[in-house]
Design brief:
This protein is mainly alpha-helical. It has one domain. Helix content is 80%, strand content 0%. It is elongated and about 45 Å long.
Amino acid sequence: MNFAPISRIILRYLAGALVTYGVVPVDVGAQIAMNPDLIAMLGLTLAALVELIYNLAKRRGWAT
């Protein structure tokens, strides 16, 4: 599954929220939302996290 579109959407909302609440400056928020390397890393991280949680659920007998 290609996580780039999902990651890009998440990063845009996250960057917007951080700028809105004054946590980061506007230019940093734009860099977060538009950085393809960051989007790729987030996609990889999301995929790895999903697999780790799935393996944990299988080992503990949780519903999968």
